[in-house]
């Protein structure tokens, strides 16, 4: 847990959405990435829960809640907060081989299961999948 008071200090922030009539004029990203400082603050909102329902994929009434891939969400939120994007990505790739895809089209069951959502907005998890690296990561094994 990078910042114990992060969830009290920072509000959830989402990527802005480019209006549809502008989107159709080009092939650019239509949910531009959060800037680096904002991303770090969003990572700081994670409480590193003792029972992290975000990654649990528990079945409730025959429906899955939490990430079905068991992504190591609290771990990479902590790495993002501390500016260790390479380590965050290497943790993310342990369970998810296509984060650029899930970061865009996944229904984000993790966010629905996030305990921060009980009394405020859940942690921004889905868009954290699109970790931007300044240098390419060297894959091991
Ligand atoms: S449930 Fe939410 S606050 Fe708790 S560890 Fe998962 S992302 Fe962090």
Ordered list of secondary-structure elements with their pairings:
Blueprint: H1 6-9, H2 20-23, H3 36-44, E1 58-60, E2 63-65, H4 73-81, H5 85-95, H6 99-105, H7 109-113
Helix pairs in contact: 3-4, 4-5
Q: Span between N and C termini?
A: 28 Å
What summary fits the major beta sheet? 2 strands, antiparallel
Q: How many helical stretches?
A: 7
Q: Which residues form runs of ≥5 with pLDDT under 50? A: none
Strand order, biggest sheet?
1-2
Q: What is the strand tally? A: 2
Bound compounds, each kind once, are: iron/sulfur cluster
Helix-residue proportion: 25-40%
Categorize the overall geometry.
globular
Global Rg: 15 Å
Assess the beta-strand content as a share of residues. Answer: under 5%
Order of helices and strands: HHHEEHHHH
Mean pLDDT: 89
Helix and strand content put the structural class at mainly alpha
Structure description:
- The chain has 141 residues and is mainly alpha-helical.
- It has helices at 6-9, 20-23, 36-44, 73-81, 85-95, 99-105, 109-113, and strands at residues 58-60, 63-65.
- 35% of the residues lie in helices and 4% in strands.
- It has a two-stranded antiparallel sheet.
- A hairpin with a 2-residue loop joins strand 1 (58-60) and strand 2.
- It is globular.
- The model has no long low-confidence stretch (mean pLDDT 89).
From the structure above, extract its key features.
4% strand; single chain; 7 helices; globular; binds iron/sulfur cluster; two-stranded antiparallel ribbon
């Amino acid at each position: 847990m990078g910042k114990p008071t992060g969830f009290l200090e920072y509000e959830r922030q989402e990527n802005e959405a480019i209006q549809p009539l502008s989107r159709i004029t080009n092939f650019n990203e239509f949910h531009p990435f959060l800037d680096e400082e904002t991303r770090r603050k969003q990572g700081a909102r994670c409480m590193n829960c003792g029972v992290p329902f975000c990654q649990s994929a528990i079945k409730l009434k025959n429906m899955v809640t939490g990430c079905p891939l068991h992504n190591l969400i609290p771990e990479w939120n902590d790495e993002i907060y501390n500016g260790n994007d390479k380590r965050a990505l290497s943790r993310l790739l342990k369970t998810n081989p296509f984060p650029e895809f899930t970061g865009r089209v996944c229904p984000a069951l993790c966010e629905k299961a996030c305990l921060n959502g009980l009394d405020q907005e859940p942690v921004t998890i889905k868009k954290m999948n699109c970790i931007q690296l300044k240098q390419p990561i060297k894959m091991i094994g």
